[in-house]
Specification:
globular, TIM Barrel, 13 helices, single chain, alpha/beta, binds flavin mononucleotide, 12 strands
Amino acid sequence: MITSSGKGTSLTTIEEFRRRAKELLTEEGWLFYNAAAGQRSTFQESVAAFDRYVIRPRILRDVTHRSLSTTVLGQPISMPICVAPSAAQRFAHPDAEAASAKGTADADTLYIMSSFASSSIAEVSQIAPGGLRWMQLYLFRDRRFAENVVREAEKEGFKAIVLTVDLPLWPDFSSNESSTSRYHYDPNLRPTNLALDIPEVNEAIRSGDVNLRHYFAEQYKSPKTWDDITWLKSITSLPIVLKGILTGEAAQEAADAGVSGIIVSAHGGRYMDGIPAPLDVLSEVVSAVKGRDVEVYMDGGIRSGTDVLKALGLGARAVLIGRPALWGLACDGPAGVNKVLSILRNELDLALGISGCTNVQDIPSSLIARKSYL
Ligand SMILES: Cc1cc2nc3c(=O)[nH]c(=O)nc-3n(C[C@H](O)[C@H](O)[C@H](O)COP(=O)(O)O)c2cc1C
């Protein structure tokens, strides 16, 4: 039984959750969650991009009955707002990803679990047995990691594998003011799932690499190419979603490789500055795979219901939230995650109706315009 502290129950906006989370998290926890690369431009632009687009409301439509429900890879969810994979959630709550997964399942939407989670895959699936879950994966030199995570995710009823493809190299964090290099990784935050059955991992821990950072940095030094998608498809029949696509060309290559979904994402601006805000390249990606059997989702900078509506209007099937869910978790455990999701749900519902639309699966692209149209 996971408890909520009640510390977030009176909060009513996403911004209030952000401020309260900053007060409640340890300094290390806040630094880790808030980290962004370089001058933080991509991070800031990912949020600011939503202001570059406007909603062009339709009028005099009957909007009494509205529906937010949709599907992702054929699985029903109550709204097109899902939770992105994010690492080390024990900074925010003792029950970590299990608490997040519970809050997300209570909102009847998709939870994507990071392979750098501090809860185990089994814990996450036990806490919310009916919830829809996908498993995120990084590829290391030692393919036993991927095999173990995939096998465990399959066993625990996860419905897709999300392969993050925007980190071919381990980033150099040393010049990054508020970066992940500044926090000290508690052994409690060790990525539980990656240590399954691999003796070298225990050896690394014994020799002092308690959080496995050096081990994984070494593991990261291996090429990752489109051949790996073929390999991944050979070890699982779960659908594969690629996370971290920012161009139409990459989207086409992904479709050619036979993936089922694409997440347009800049990894929350955490690892490279100077890459685009995901919202700005969403239309390009959507056009590139039009007519192909690939669903397109996006994340980065979603902070309100109108943000969600803009992303849907530009062609996303659903959006993911990263930091806002962590703020919810830090403020009030599963109830906090659920509250953040319900704030966004209510805002989206209102924005949808006021824009003269009734169904999230049927938003005309003419509803959204770049501000320059004025
Ligand atoms: C603290 C933190 C940890 C993250 N860890 C992962 C991860 O393990 N795997 C991954 O694919 N993305 C990871 N991400 C990126 C998120 O999945 C997502 O792309 C990003 O947070 C979306 O932007 P937003 O925070 O503005 O909503 C992480 C993001 C944060 C904030």
